[in-house]
Amino acid sequence: MKIRIDPEQDTFLLDHVVDGAPLLPTVMQLDLVARGLMATTAAQQATRPQAGLLLRDIRVGPPVQFTGPGLYHLDLLSEPGPASRQGRSAQGFELRSAIGDAPHLTAHAEHTSRPAGRLGTCGFAGGLPGGPDLIYPPFFHGPTFQVVGSFGPAGDGGLAARLASGLPPLRWGCGPTVLRPRLLELLLQCCGIQELAGTGRMMVPAAIESVYWHPESLTPEAETNAVAVARPRAGPPPRHGQVFDGQVVTPSGTVLLTVTGYRAIDLGCPADLRQAARLAQRLAARSEPAARGWAGTAIPEGAPR
Questions:
Q1: C-beta of residue 88 within 8 angstroms of C-beta of residue 302
Q2: DSSP state of 241
Q3: Containing H/E element for 59?
Q4: Cβ atoms 139, 264 nearer than 8 A
Q5: What kind and span of H or E run contains 30?
Q6: In whole angstroms, what is the distance from residue 59 CA to residue 106 CA?
Q7: pLDDT: is 81 or 86 the higher one?
Q8: pLDDT tens digits along 163-212
């Protein structure tokens, strides 16, 4: 599958710039994977009820970087992947360009509507005390990806972030996205806030065990008042380190997105330690407990843990 990207039409790239060069956000690369899955399974899905999308075994390679004007071409390669433990078929994808040997992103993708397992019950403070002034800067995102409207501590060492209102439209120059990428972006930035406050480092995605896009997340209305909650845990061997699990929900408790095993790596540029200290101070401030929490939800069968 050939992908054509034109920075003059795909203007969201101007809101994701590192060291002066626009990068293709990881969440938009995953939207291309979802587009590829839709293309390869269109005939089968036409006769099936609406299902969610499971993207798993995600590995992020060298960034897709735009160093000048003009069209850029990417190849989205696909082949049948290993079946899940429940026997469902999956497609393996690689996003590549003509420059460099390593793929920009690899993932397995499948349609599924049979979630199983739970992340647990999560409560978060009713009043989220942090605002975007503490995040942009030091985060490098422009208006399209300034997705955090407010944030604050959640239970058990986690963090909650509410989606900002009035965000500019996010679409490809050739048409709408398949997914609602900013729902995942909200959760990833939620993790990034915790990393910056805790370690003073700016982090970018390296790997995700699984992202389950519940069917309700695939509608335009999904990007309304969503809240992300993410919690760190010890990662599996041999790397160990820290990974995050999380969910994105609506105010009514409908779960839109479930993420397990998100791992980040250092961006490689120095962070503003004063901003990191301000973040840590704000997160350490006491807040009133929530009147009610929201329950964790099922994650799909066969999702890595």
A1: yes
A2: S
A3: strand 52-60
A4: no
A5: helix 26-40
A6: 5
A7: 81
A8: 999 999 999 998 999 999 999 999 999 999 998 888 888 889 999 999 99
What is the average per-residue pLDDT within 58-86? 84
Alpha helix (H) residue ranges in 200-228: none
Tell me how far the alpha carbon of residue 245 is from its chain's centroid: 11
Model pTM greater than 0.85?
Answer: yes
Sequence-distant (6+) residues with CB within 8 A of 148 are 132, 135, 161, 162, 163, 164, 186, 189, 190, 193
Q: What are phi and psi of 273, to 5 degrees?
A: -65, -25
Under a CB-based contact definition with an 8 Å cutoff, are residues 143 and 15 in contact?
yes
pLDDT in tens, 105-162: 999 999 887 654 445 445 554 567 788 988 888 888 999 999 999 998 887 788 999 9
Q: Which tokens is 136 given?
A: 């942009």
Structure tokens belonging to residue 137:
């800067």
Which CATH fold topology does 2-113+124-288 show?
Thiol Ester Dehydrase; Chain A (3.10.129)
Q: Phi, psi at residue 292, to the nearest 5°?
A: -150, 155
Give the residue from 278, 283, 282, 275 showing the smallest Cα distance to 139: 275
The residue behind tokens 């409908």 is 254
Pairing mode, if any, of strands 148-153 and 159-163? Answer: antiparallel
Could you tell me which of 143, 125, 127, 126 has the C-alpha nearest to residue 135? 143
Domain ranges in the chain are: 2-113+124-288
Tokens 């010890």 — which residue?
234
Q: Calculate what percentage of the chain has a pLDDT beyond 90.
A: 46
